[in-house]
Amino acid sequence: MKVYYLLGILMVAAVGRAAAQNEEIEDSVENRQVKKVNVTVYYESLCPFARDFIVNQLRPTLRGNLSRYINLELIPYGKTNRTSDYNGNATFSCQHGPEECYGNLIQACARDFIDSDALYAEFVACYMDAVHPPASRRLMDEAAEACATPAGLAASRLRTCANNTFGVERLIHYGRLTDAFATPLRRVPTVAFEGVDDEAASEAARASFAGEVCSRIEPPRPAECEDVKIVQRNGGVTVRTAVWSFLWLVLPLIRADRLFMW
């Protein structure tokens, strides 16, 4: 009986120690100085693929604890074309028509009026969720009204901005940022991490934004990362791909008799 009693004490102690260690790990994740992942999303207001990413990938992730690890910048320009007349007046042409240009202007203006990054991202997601092609100017104004209120912003300010030179200047600014990143922008949306144009990372983010963010967070990772698939990368190439590439090159060089000796 004494042996069983002693074993029971040891088991309880071991479980308690493991639980304490887990609590210490969780506490270190919550309280350590967080190194944020820099994310830039290049998109346009009526692109269905951008809408799907922002509404179904970006917004749910930002509403959770992972938002603490993300430094986000949204660039509402995409593949917009800009021309200027002799007087320097800019004219925009967008993939999904003039309504898309107007939506880009609305979102460019909102960035200047909404100080909080989180509130701005919520505004963009709300707007993208409410407006999709074919969209009328009236529908876009109604969406701006509905989405601006939770952000503490009067939609009338957005409409005024989007219809004057200030809004044009803001959209030109985002156009320059887009051109500096990639001229021309090859795909919409493009999700860039740390300012790098990596198509594989962008596609992975569109499939699982939380997973791609988690893969870039230094361990110990937050609890949210336990339920997502994390792909380890090495200079933009997955470790699995790198290993198979190495074996593909090396195996033909190995003598058959040495290979069978293994």
Automatic annotation (TrEMBL):
Gene Ontology terms for molecular function: oxidoreductase activity, acting on a sulfur group of donors, disulfide as acceptor
Pfam families recorded: GILT
Compartmental location: Secreted
InterPro entries given in the database record: Interferon-induced_GILT
Taxonomic superkingdom: Eukaryota
Membrane-spanning segments: none
Signal sequence, start to end: 1-20
Keywords: Glycoprotein, Secreted, Signal
Cellular component, GO annotation: extracellular region
Main location: secreted
PANTHER family: GAMMA-INTERFERON INDUCIBLE LYSOSOMAL THIOL REDUCTASE GILT, GAMMA-INTERFERON-INDUCIBLE LYSOSOMAL THIOL REDUCTASE
Stated family: Belongs to the GILT family.
Name of the featured protein: Gamma-interferon-inducible lysosomal thiol reductase
Organism name: Phyllotreta striolata (Striped flea beetle)
